[in-house]
Design a protein that fits this description.
By secondary structure, the chain is α/β, with parallel strands linked by helices. The chain is built from 13 helices and 22 strands. It folds into 2 domains: 274 residues, no CATH class; 178 residues, no CATH class. The protein binds zinc ion (ZN).
Length: 486
Amino acid sequence: MSRKITMAIAGMHIESGTFSPLRSRMGDFLALRGDEMLTRYPFLADKEFTEIEAFPLVHFRAMPGGMIVREDYETMKQEILDCLRALEKMPDAFYFDVHGAMTVEGSVDAEANLLASIRAVLPEGVVVTCSQDLHGNVSASLVAMVDVMTTYRTAPHVDWMETRERAVRLLLRCFHEKTKPFLAYVPIPVLVSGEMSSTEYEPGRSLYAPIAKESTTPGVWDASLWVGYAWADQSRAMASVVVIGNDRNAVKKLAEKIAQRYWDARTKFAFITEAGPVKWCVEQALASEEKPVFCSDAGDNPTAGGAGDVTATLKFLLAHDDFLSAKRSAIFASIPDQAALAKMISAGVGQQVEVELGGKLDPVHGSPLTVKGTVVSLIEGDDAQGVLKCGGVKVIVSGRRRPYHLRQDFLALGLDPLMTDLTVVKIGYLEPELKAMARRHWLILSPGGVRADYWNLDYRHLSRPMFPMDQDFSWQAQAQLFGGES
Ligand SMILES: [Zn+2]
């Protein structure tokens, strides 16, 4: 039996912005070390991949958040490098498993910084593959350091596992064909948010739909399109395309075609649902004859990097006559606040408490809110949560920043959006289960670190011109070429 292809794997996966005062710390990351990491790549057990001998080093993954504190980033990076140096023999290949929109204090291109350090340890010629989230901000520096890269083709993301698998399959192809592909990279001067670019709606749907088929163009191995991440004030924040393959002209041509198509559709990007100020959204929602209805408290969406404890929208609900009088019912998901939750837990279910809620993780976009209510539900343990009933509003208070994407997240707390007049979630577009429940949905243009009307943010470092901040400029897709067997 011939010698196996050795592949080390490591990465840091986070989407972190520059507009939130929140900081991400090492403790926010779930670290998987050694064989624990294999749960991320079950496909490696398939017959197709038996020629690979994997060396999972360490992988750090966190919920979206604010910038990573520099020393915490350096500590995680050092662990990756130490694990790599500790290998008995350097690998033939390296899988750089990242999100692509990581922001670190004092670094403008964190993924490139991390990969450069890894490359400095790896011997020359090691084949590097990279998988990303389509909300990553790609840079020429990063593309220059990888041999293969690919990204998701769906938002909401349902193809994360097949993307990882594709990243490794493309890597194998380098070994089978004894070549390294060309990479054609096109940065596109368009920056839209996730809320405007779901692949379930136009124009996202039509921009992404052809990519799988286009990846089978002769001479092309794979095509990737990134929307980018709008809440990072960096020159690499924008949409981009990377097409890889062994035919220099074919990859260039296809990359420019996909990029030009994206540019041509730029004015069609819009919120996928009606958006407006909180008062307008709530009025619309309460007047809706179709139920159930959802509103997104989008400016403080923790799953896009918001702190999650901005209280502006909650404050409006609690002061609303229909909710004060409990004539109408609402669920508010959620405010992460350990101190408030501890007070609720010590009081117990059925008891009245007064708490200073939220405004601590993000004191810039809001302040703590004094809330008096009855504790109606508690979950203790690692993922502690509780529900505080204030008039008609049931407020979920969580011990940590966490998403509420699943119906079960609500049912576990004795809450049911299907039986409630209005459910407000700190989210952008609705994740599949919520979307399936919602008959109507409004996006609240609320304050926070990831405000949905991002074009009003005070960008200082963005490449200009950039659509939609700049409107009146022309642009022609032109690919930069990297890689190829020399
Ligand atoms: Zn994403």
